[in-house]
Amino acid sequence: MIFLDTDILINYFKGNKNIQSALLKHLQNGEDICTTTLNVYEIVKGFKYIGSEKKIKKLETFLNEIEVFNLNNQSMVEAAEIFTNLKKAGKTIGDMDILIATIVMQNNGILVSNNTRHFKNIQELQLTNWM
């Protein structure tokens, strides 16, 4: 499964050719394209802030075509463990990124993000960048 991070979704909707082409390639290969409810929140929040109902409608159409994963109780336990390990190692990242990474790992997915700096310290996370 390929999970799209918020920055990838934003750039997809801005018409980024690299992302559009990579997405098409993975779809043609029969791979599942997904995101998380946390990413949906982040992107909708941004679109609402700039007052772009048109982009929200496009997003809703897009989300109807992919699977959107949510947190569960086990996610919270695993996320807390990741946070603790990173904090003890002196490498902290935002809670939202930890939660997104946890969902991706629980589903044996690959996270596509341009924010590799945020995620690189989570060693178990499979990470790639289409930018």
TrEMBL record:
What are its cofactors? Mg(2+)
Specify the species.
Methanobrevibacter cuticularis
Gene3D superfamilies registered for this protein in UniProt: 5'-nuclease (3.40.50.1010)
Alphabetized, the UniProt keywords read:
Hydrolase, Magnesium, Metal-binding, Nuclease
Show the Pfam families listed in the entry.
PIN
Reported EC number(s) for this entry are 3.1.-.-
Q: Which family does it belong to?
A: Belongs to the PINc/VapC protein family.
Under the heading SUPFAM superfamilies, the entry gives: PIN domain-like
In its UniProt entry, what is this protein called? Ribonuclease VapC1
State the coiled-coil residue ranges. Answer: none
Which is an annotated GO molecular function term of this record?
metal ion binding
> Which residue ranges does the record assign to the PIN domain?
2-123
